[in-house]
Amino acid sequence: MAKKLRKVGDIMLDMESLLFELHIDHDLQHGDVLYLVNGWQRIHVPEQIETYVKDGTHPVLYGPKNGRKK
After folding, report:
1. Distance, CA of 37 to CA of 32 (rounded, Å)
2. Cα torsion through 20, 25, 26, 27, rounded to 10
3. Residues 6+ apart with CB under 8 A from 28
4. Could you say which DSSP state residue 26 is in?
5. Taking the chain, what is the end-to-end CA distance rounded to the nearest angstrom?
6. Full-model pTM
7. pLDDT of 8-18, one tens digit each?
8. Cα–Cα distance measured from residue 48 to residue 37, given in angstroms and rounded to the nearest whole number
9. Is 36's pLDDT higher than 60?
10. Cβ atoms of 48 and 55 closer than 8 Å
11. Distance between alpha carbon 64 and the CA centroid of its chain, in Å?
12. CA–CA–CA angle 6, 7, 12 (5° rounding)
């Protein structure tokens, strides 16, 4: 049976208390929090980071790679 996905809004509400804790208790700033999330993604879920074509201009989009209109 497929796992039921929670609504993004519900996840954001859960994150809100954690983000306030980082800000208030640890005095982290915007860039600090973004750096922590970025580092976590690069280590734990690197496949979720968009990859770019060789010329660096466009991300490789989700979906089939063959048969797309250019």
Report:
1. 9
2. 70
3. 22, 36
4. T
5. 38
6. 0.60
7. 999 999 999 99
8. 13
9. yes
10. no
11. 22
12. 105
Evaluated on CA atoms 49, 45, 26, 7, the torsion sign reads: positive
φ/ψ bin of 56: left (φ > 0), alpha (ψ from -120 to 50), beta (otherwise): left
- Report H helices in the chain: 8-20, 30-44
Beta-carbon count within 10 A of 57 CB: 7
Compute CA 70 distance to the chain's CA centroid, rounded to the nearest angstrom. Answer: 27
1 touches 9 (CB < 8 A) = no
Contact 60, 50 (CB under 8 A): yes
